[in-house]
Fold:
Amino acid sequence: MTSFSEKTVRGVSLLFLVIFGFLTYKNYYYSPLIVLTIMMYFSTKGVQMFENRIFLSTRAIFWLLFSTLLFLRIYFNESSYLDMKNTKTLLTISLISICIGTWVGDFFAKYVYIRLKFCINRFFSTSNKGIYRIVKMENTQQNYMKSLGKKMGIMFYHITLDVNGEERKFLLEKELFEKLQGKSEININIKKGCLGICYGVDMQE
Structure:
């Protein structure tokens, strides 16, 4: 069983930064990927807890986008080898595109798009330092495909705080989650970014 860790996320970001840096050295067209990776790295750096909600409609947009792009890529690349007027061929390509495109789109929405959104959100944020009531704490397990036929469980830790009369749910590290067990309040600076996403920094013991 593995626990969610922002250190792992930033470590992976640095790894991709090196890879994209090498690709950019070979071809400058890859340079935007470096910017995206840097944004992902700094999205939650120094943050102790943050809202990670993503709407189903947003995920659906990326499902549709990646499925469509994959379908068009296969359609135009294989049009000279396959009979694209055949209904079975089109249905097969559509099914492959939907299966792969949905998975890739969901991954992009949860782990790339939301990170870029976090990074932009941190601009022009307003601080609200104070003592907040802990409404509830919970941990959930999500299973991810590790290899063919095998799944890996990852634990995610959440805390719900009463922020100015509104309940806000935050994702946090396992160590902080365990430290807050049994407490009814938390002294922390809750910041609200330009996109309306809240996150916590500078927690006081």
Summary: The domain at 126-204 is CATH 2.40.50.660 (OB fold (Dihydrolipoamide Acetyltransferase, E2P)). Residues 87-121 form the longest helix (35 residues). The longest strand covers residues 126-147. The chain is about 45% helix and 30% strand.
